[in-house]
Design the sequence.
DNA sequence: AATGAATGAGTCTTCATTCAT
DNA sequence: GATGAATGAAGACTCATTCAT
């Protein structure tokens, strides 16, 4: 598929808006086409099928997401700082794109199991980034040597995810970003070498 | 609806099996009816519509779930012990019912948003139980006085949920229960008064 | 079927009320049973099937209807008077039973064609009564000798029927009975020997 | 809906045939689609739902019907002639389209009440045309000055309708058109100033 | 005679996808 | 490349009727 053509992103952006505003099951292909100002059939010149729109959407947006966080993390020297900056940016990016937040926290999860497996592959990259920070923390002695990396990562990701989902379910009506340091501290406590 | 009639639970149990094995979107009413050995129409004597099956299923199973955990927690005297026993039982109950684990971790989340709002109301009870443990820990000085109860609860629930989901996504092929103490310790560290 | 048992009429009367208030297609057997204070299955001890309820209802009510009109007509000596009294009573009887009026003018006609053929057989008796009056009028010279009995009857029945239907469609909000003499006069003019 | 597309009328014509031959309640959408040589889904590109087919059918056919009668009436100078020509054409048009006659006289009336209300709005136009003829007759002195226009119209429409229905119920086996002058005369007599 | 829980056949409608233009 | 009219498969739900008690 021709990913660098402008219509490719045009359709993806339309999909984010339509899914966020109507929900996954009310996001018909024709609605996305209309929002993108293209004909229904045109969608199929850029995407294999409807699920492919969602996967591509997720891959594109998640790619940007991870790239931004990776960059932010790179600027910090300690694992603790990196973890904090990771949480901060996770919250910040989703705060700044309300449509995307709705799509990632609520709507994507309504897709069928097969679709979610593919989406998990996309998340993998993010999980590996978290793992890297954790491993670094163990290596430098910031985190306890006995730390179970997998469990710690699940704690980090699960906590952030649950926090963002709760915020979205409450219609994003409080400030998510300001929760970052507190969340980060609790997580760090859990891992600290003491 | 007539909840004490045997057919009510018969249908719910059939739904758990069918949804776990086929996924929510492939769990046709006729398939559930067949599994329950009743006619399609009989379903509608006990449930308003298809969504009502899922909500009822979740309410019944979650009711049992919370009751079991509440009982286990009641037998412990410190907040820390209570939290550990909560995590242990959360993992234990889902470990022992693989079908239910699939339904709660994957399939229920595919339901439409409106449905999920109702399901959240059912979860509420569980979240309140977690809150109680946290409040007790703050009161007794086990947990730091500055603990943000909401965030802490999101950390506990998010961590357990992500841990179970990862386990389910990996086809339940490792022992979930044995992770409980490690997960519990990390969480406790995060909250401890030091 | 056991027509002299009290439950037979009890069910018919319930059917009139339920059909008038809910419409033919919303008059489920279970609703009629409830209104009649009997079990669903009991209906089938007195009626062959659902259509049989409607046919029986119509036969019973139409029987009473024709009997009343026949009696009123019998008391008059000229064909003209008989026709007038027929129109008057047609309007009077339906005026006094609003539920029945709704059922005969609107709901019965929603039944399937086969059903309506049977209902027509029930009306036959009424049409024959009208024919008798017309024939008498021709015999006595009150009506023109060239009168086409069939057409004249269709004119009488069609006019009365349309008048009642219009009244029912207007929610029976004006006085139907007071239209009788005017309708009767117009019809008589059409038939008069001059 | 796109009324000038050929498929619109193609579907309507198919519906007339299917409804006339099978009855309204046995006229499944799939049957109409097959008769029209289109896919089931295509129906919904031109009609909101099944009821909309019937309403549209009636509106189109009734529109043609009234237009033809209006034209015929326009060519006559006296109210009496107009009334005669109206009856003649009413019978003639339905005589020449046996399928349409079955649909208008029997099947349309089986539709639910809500549907019939909409259909009545379509008939309105025809009733107004009749009213106009009657008013003209009164103005010119052809009809008696005391004529109750509403009742007279009900007599005209009711008589014609009953006459056509009886003819349809008798499988259209006699000549309807030849009854027109006799029916017209009887009606005229009823209204005449003498 | 009476009950009412259980049955299961039957249909409208949506919407992802195609393909002739 | 782009269009959008046409396709047709698929499934939840209702309700008249039955029959074991």
Sequence:
């Amino acid at each position: 598929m021709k990913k660098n053509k402008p219509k490719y992103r045009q359709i993806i952006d339309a999909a984010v808006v339509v899914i966020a505003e109507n929900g996954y099951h009310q996001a018909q292909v024709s609605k996305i086409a209309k929002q993108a100002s293209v004909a229904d059939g045109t969608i199929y010149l850029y995407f294999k099928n409807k699920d492919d729109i969602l996967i591509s959407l997720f891959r594109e947006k998640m790619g940007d997401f991870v790239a931004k966080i990776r960059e932010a993390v790179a600027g910090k020297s300690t694992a603790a700082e990196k973890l904090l900056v990771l949480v901060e940016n996770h919250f910040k990016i989703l705060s700044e794109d309300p449509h995307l937040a709705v799509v990632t926290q609520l709507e994507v999860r309504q897709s069928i199991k097969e679709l979610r497996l593919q989406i998990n592959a996309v998340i993998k990259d993010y999980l590996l980034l978290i793992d890297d920070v954790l491993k670094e923390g163990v290596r430098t002695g910031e985190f306890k040597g006995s730390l179970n990396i997998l469990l710690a990562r699940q704690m980090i990701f699960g906590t952030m995810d649950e926090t963002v989902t709760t915020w979205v379910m409450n219609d994003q009506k409080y400030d998510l970003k300001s929760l970052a340091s507190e969340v980060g501290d609790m997580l760090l406590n859990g891992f600290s070498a003491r």
